[in-house]
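Example 9 (inverse folding). The structure is encoded as follows.
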């Protein structure tokens, strides 16, 4: 029986999970090809803070190492970004990502001018996730400022941290706001190190109680207020486009 060709664009947690489900439900039905802009197998992005603070090794957070793809006869184009889907020809076009380029840059930014990789398909699944939104901040993009989303980001931040603390142990990196940074601050403090990321928003230390306390009543309906602000923003954008 001829197998159908399935191309999955995206090798993150969503893309790998859907492939796992397909293998479980329809084993042997598809020849599967995957495009992943990072040169690795699928890993748990939620645990990157642990890699950054060295409580885990990068190898410990992989959910689907490269060997898994070989075992399941999946062709993985690791480090190759799918830049175009030709729907008439039914072909996915990919280009290699340059070594120091961002894998989540828009379009073909940071890709190699070498010959593209072409994969014909019967079916295609797009599981690329999202690109990190960076709010306008003065100074961002200068040396010493980073996005924090990939294993390579962890390496770059750690290299900067090591170089900075070597020249001045009191040096502290700073960020305007970072949800991931909150974890980094806590774990760095536990290990008696200067925090790598410092949030300008003050944080309240955790409270310890001898007995359960009643939750404090919040003033106002905060979720409803946030929803109203979001709807207002959508209306303004729709008005501008109109």
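The amino acid assigned to each position is listed next.
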């Amino acid at each position: 029986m001829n197998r159908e060709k399935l191309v999955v664009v995206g090798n993150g947690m969503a893309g790998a999970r859907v492939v796992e489900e397909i293998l479980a439900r329809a084993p042997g039905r598809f020849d599967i090809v995957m495009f992943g802009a990072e040169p690795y197998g699928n890993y748990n992005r939620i645990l990157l803070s642990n890699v950054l603070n060295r409580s885990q090794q990068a190898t410990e957070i992989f959910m689907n190492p490269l060997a898994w793809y070989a075992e399941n006869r999946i062709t993985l184009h690791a480090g190759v970004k799918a830049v175009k889907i030709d729907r008439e020809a039914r072909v996915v076009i990919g280009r290699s990502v340059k070594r120091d380029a961002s894998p989540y840059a828009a379009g073909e930014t940071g890709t190699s001018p070498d010959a593209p990789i072409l994969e014909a398909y019967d079916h295609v699944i797009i599981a690329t996730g999202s690109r990190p939104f960076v709010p306008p901040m003065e100074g961002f993009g200068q040396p010493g400022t980073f996005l924090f989303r990939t294993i390579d980001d962890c390496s770059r931040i750690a290299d900067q941290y090591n170089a900075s603390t070597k020249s001045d142990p009191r040096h502290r990196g700073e960020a305007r706001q970072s949800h991931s940074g909150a974890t980094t601050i806590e774990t760095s403090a536990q290990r008696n190190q200067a925090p790598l990321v410092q949030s300008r928003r003050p944080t309240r230390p955790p409270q310890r109680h001898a007995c359960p306390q009643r939750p404090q009543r919040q003033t106002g309906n905060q979720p409803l207020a946030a929803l109203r602000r979001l709807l207002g923003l959508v209306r303004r954008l729709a008005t501008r486009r109109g």
